[in-house]
Amino acid sequence: MGYLSPMTSSDQRQGTGAPSLTGQEPLFIVLNTGSGRGDAQVLQDTIRGILDEAGRRYTLMPVDDPTHLTETAQDAVKRAQDEKGVVIAAGGDGTLNAVAATVLGKGVPFGILPQGTFNYFGRAYGISQETDVALRGFLQGHIEPVRVGQLNGRLFLVNASLGLYPTLLEDREAYKQRFGRSRLVALWSGVVTLLRAPRQLRLQLEEKGGVRDLRTPTLVVGNNKLQLEHVGIESEDLERDRLVAMTVKPVGTLALYGLLLRGLFSRLGEAEHVISFGFQRMTVRIRGRHRVKVAMDGEISWMNTPLEFKVAEEKLPLVVPADPQYLDRS
């Protein structure tokens, strides 16, 4: 079987550090069998069927244990470097994050087959959540250099946060384990979480514009236009290659419910308690805290303070659909 025609021109690759694609590169697909919405075997069968039909060389690299995800991604990157191939991540936001972090700066093109609930990262670049559509779009795609954020040197694609937001994510995951993955379950878990009075953090935010002291239950740094627009926060700063910080003044539980409702109706930016601003680099100090729980693209971990948020110096060479029929316009 013949290979597909070339997917991109060299001028679309400037600044990514990876060679131009020919449409014949071997694909190394890191697949998290424990993440996503459906059956992992069905996902693998779908991938095999489409790529076999297209005549593409590929290697499926399933990961059953999430602790081996980074190791498998490193192996995929090395093989892609040796064979001038492409690395593809198949899984939820955490999987996309882990593989992207391994790819960044290695001169290897990166593709995704998103399996998460909201798919903010994929949708922002027209990549469908439907595996067959996303994969066919990849095969008819081109490279787009994509901005990513970093927190203390660790990459994030969509957002990074501390305070109340990581707690919301932890509770949401627990509810999903019990009641299934859906947006309604995610909403209900948020309502329940807000019943508990959130702890206030005393932050010092230092960036190019100066220093500000703030008492707040949470700080979220966004890197995704769709997510910001979904809750009603201005996203123009992203177009200027900046990140967007979002935080709230100290409020009671009732006011937090009001903010939740505003977010659902894309009006969070209108709330008087909400503060948002763009930046390229920001240091966050937390009074009385040497370590803090953070969430990065939905994955929870502990991190030493101070925290440094910044735009990564290198961009991610993401393969996005070029053919309009494969674009996700939702």
TrEMBL record:
Its Enzyme Commission number? 2.7.1.-
State the UniProt keywords alphabetically: Kinase, Transferase
Reading the lineage from the top rank, the first entry is Bacteria
EC top class, in one word? transferase
- Looking at the record, the residues that make up the DAGKc domain are 22-155
Give the molecular function GO annotations. Answer: kinase activity
Note the Pfam families from the entry. Answer: DAGK_cat
Signal sequence interval, chain numbering? none
**Entries under InterPro entries matching the protein:** ATP-NAD_kinase_N, Diacylglycerol_kinase_cat_dom, Lipid_Phosphate_FormReg, NAD/diacylglycerol_kinase_sf
Q: Report residue spans for region: Disordered.
A: 1-22
Respond yes or no to whether keyword Kinase is given for this record: yes
PANTHER family recorded: SPHINGOSINE KINASE, SPHINGOSINE KINASE RELATED PROTEIN
Please report the name of this protein according to its UniProt entry: Lipid kinase YegS
